[in-house]
Amino acid sequence: MKFRAEIDVMPLDALLDPQGKAVTGSMKTIGLEMIDGVRIGKHIRLFVEANSKAVAEEKVKEACTKLLSNQIMESYSYTLVEA
Fold first, then answer.
1. CA nearest to 49, candidates 8, 11, 4, 9
2. How confident is the model at residue 31 (pLDDT cuts 50, 70, 90)?
3. Average pLDDT of the residues in 12-19
């Protein structure tokens, strides 16, 4: 079976996000003062070939914790659907 994972990796709320802070400042410059608190992360889509959804989920978690996110500075969430 083939599964598609949509993964979002974001900086932890307790940590400074310089890129998000710069974009927040730019919002005010272009007249969008009502937009605040921008946080910049990354979105990853990948496909997993596995015998079951449980196995695919295990592999996605492993990819997230070992490679796709830095557990000290980032959190991740994902959705997994049959492709």
1. 4
2. very high
3. 95
